[in-house]
Each structure stands twice: as C-alpha cells, then as structure tokens.
Amino acid sequence: MDFLTCYTNKSPLLMEGALGERLKREYNLSFDADVAMASLIYTNEGRQALTYLWNEYIAIAEKHNLPFIATTPTRRANKERVNQSKYSEDIISENVSFLRSIKASSSTTMFTGGLMGCKGDAYQAKDMLSIEKAKKFHSWQANLFHESKVDFLFAAIMPALSEAIGMAKALEETHLPYIISFMILENGCLIDGTSIHDAIMLIDKSTQQKPVCYMANCVHPKILYSALEKEFNQTPLVKERFGGIQANTSPLSPEELDNSADLKCSDSIELANEIIKLNEFINLNIVGGCCGTDNTHIEQIAKRISNKQMIFEKKSNK
C-alpha cells in the first residue's frame, strides 16, 4: 500500500513526535548553523540518536497497529542554506537513504516524507516569498526528494499564503503526494492574516494536483480548536480538506515558543484528549507531535487514534 492509498482509506496514521528538542535535551547535540538537523546523519552520535528516537516512535505505532509516517530532518536544508554550508546537495538524498534504512529495519507499515519549509522565519512570517519566487526556490529541494524516491512531501509550518501557493506549485510538479501544513494562530488565520478556509481554497484553486490534505504543526490543539471554531472556518471545505496536526504541548504563541529558553510541556493524557476533541471539526487522519512531545505523548495519542470508532464517531453519526 502506498501513502496516498493509505490516507484515502481514512485509516488514522501516527506521525512522529518531536526530534529537535529531544536531540538537544536528551543527547546534548548541537545543530549546524546553516542546514540545522540535516547534518546529524554525518556523525555517529547523530545517527544513533535519530535511530533511537525514530525506533521509539515506530514501536508505539506497531504496538497500536497504526501506519507510521516520519519525515527527514531537512526543513532548513533548502537551496540557499545548502549552498552556503559545507555540504553538497547530496545531503538531501543521504537523509532520505538514512530514513529509508530505518524503515527497512521495521515490519511496521511506514512512509518516509521529504520535509521542507519556508525560506524565511516561519514563526514571524518574515522574508516570505512571492508565488513565482517560491515555486522557483522550492523546486530545487522538491526535485531532489523526488529523485530520492520519498513516499510523500511535507511542507511544514507555512505561515503565509503566497509562499504556500508557490511551494504547492513546486511540489505538484514532482507528481508525488504532498501535504501543506500551516502555522496557525488562535484567531483562525495563518500569521499573514489569511483564514484557514481561504488558504485551502486558494491553494486548491492554484494547483492541478492538489495537496493530499492540509494540516497544522507547531501548534497546541487548543489553539487549533479555537481557530477552527471561528465561523469563517466552519465550512465544508475545511471539514473535507483539513486532515491532521503535529501538536505542541504548550499553548504559547509562536513568538513566545520561538524565543523560550525553557521546555514548555504539558501532561500527555491531557494533550491526547485535546487532540481527539478536534474531531468535532476535522477529519483527524494524521496525528503526531511537535515541540515538547516525547514518547509518552505519542503513546497516549496512539492509544486514542487506534480506536477508529472514537476518531470517526461524530462523522459517522451525521
């Protein structure tokens, strides 16, 4: 079964939890100034830590009989940053190969994604690209992922509509399944002020091969709930096309989280219950963790989404 078929079947998929914070906190690893976590595969310590954390999450998926998805730690490894680093474009294919080796050692149904992100600051929507510039800029990385045979592409924490459209145009040209995941505020909008509904509508209209779905990541489920609760987001389009969350454990704003020196964490059971509450508004098909999460949070999430009846109860009763 390929990724698109699995998603279309509406089986809940478990996504990985946090990597970056855990790599720093639990392994005392530092990241490259240019390509960030993408360089970790070139050290024994980095490879061992990534292997352990991914296998920890995979074991949870296997325990609860859930398909598992993970993405390469390459959000910052775009063309500009790679060119100014000491690394070559091979950093993309080598990250894919490493993640695929993790997949090969597991019997779990697992899909490997190529992780991408905006060119500028995702937490403040600075230096965002126009549609045409974004398409040109992101095509380089997207094409390298296509050549490396990832299962899907994942554009994370996209804060502005123009670059999200350009990103989608670059991703669709690979003909790979892809997901656009937004940075969403409690007011129901992306950081640039575009509503969730309008962002989905305009990206769908701008592409021939539409995203598989839309998500939010680096956001607490309470914030996403408030955002989806806004009347202008209470539309059939949002209900149909919004598919999941990689959840933060803290309800702080993006600016507060980005500048915080301390880990912001919350109870794993509370977080999992807040995620399930989102089913009032969206088809909760992909669920994972972002800042502050660890194996305990992913375990609680997996316990809940493994019961498909719990996930789709409201939907089936309508």
UniProtKB/TrEMBL annotation:
InterPro entries: HCY_dom (IPR003726), HCY_dom_sf (IPR036589). The keyword Metal-binding applies. Residues 1-305 form the Hcy-binding domain. Zn(2+) binds at C218, C290, C291. GO terms for biological process: methylation. Its cofactor is Zn(2+). It comes from the Bacteria. Gene3D superfamilies: Homocysteine-binding-like domain. Keywords: Metal-binding, Methyltransferase, Transferase, Zinc. It holds the Pfam family S-methyl_trans. GO terms for molecular function: metal ion binding; methyltransferase activity. The keyword Transferase applies. PANTHER family: SLR1189 PROTEIN. This is S-methylmethionine-dependent homocysteine/selenocysteine methylase. It comes from Dysgonomonas alginatilytica. The lineage of its organism: Bacteria, Pseudomonadati, Bacteroidota, Bacteroidia, Bacteroidales.
